[in-house]
Specification:
Largest sheet: none
Order of helices and strands: HHHHHHHH
Number of strands: 0
Strand content: under 5%
Radius of gyration: 20 Å
Shape: elongated
Number of helices: 8
């Protein structure tokens, strides 16, 4: 990264933290950051204007991570999956997700049970449970994070 334009250097720690949350490994996170910085350098070298560099860098990093997720998901599709009924895979994913939800701590599980029942608004969840909105948001975030880890292990 010794050729990184000076105005990008302060973004590296922020991008690295975000990439580590999005990636499955430290190496993958480093690759995403490197790819993002390369894209930003190219855009700057081409003379293209970036109004909000921080926001643009984070959006670019997120898009790179999503692109990698799609690529990995496609690469991991095995031949025998192609012969499986399309609905079967969805049912398996739903069953895995529902099983993972049952393993969550009770406060998180209760909120997700309401989401499954149709409550999608955090404000509605806060009203339904009597919890402060911040508590609902925090529990949902922790529940989603735990589900990502659990489902990634499977």
């Amino acid at each position: 990264m010794h050729n990184t334009p000076p105005r990008l250097v302060p973004l590296i720690p922020m991008l690295t933290r975000r990439a580590r949350r999005l990636a499955r490994s430290r190496t993958e996170a480093e690759d995403i950051v490197q790819d993002t910085l390369l894209s930003l350098c190219q855009r700057i070298a081409d003379g293209k204007n970036i109004d909000d560099l921080n926001a643009y860098a984070m959006r670019t990093l997120t898009n790179r991570a999503r692109r990698d997720w799609r690529r990995v998901a496609t690469d991991e599709l095995e031949e025998d999956h192609a012969m499986t009924e399309p609905d079967a895979l969805i049912r398996l994913d739903c069953a895995d997700t529902l099983a993972a939800i049952t393993m969550l701590p009770t406060p998180q599980r209760q909120l997700l049970d309401l989401v499954i029942a149709g409550e999608t608004s955090p404000r509605a969840l806060a009203r339904a449970t009597g919890l402060p909105l911040g508590t609902v948001m925090s529990r949902l975030a922790r529940a989603r994070a735990r589900l990502r880890v659990t489902l990634a292990e499977d």
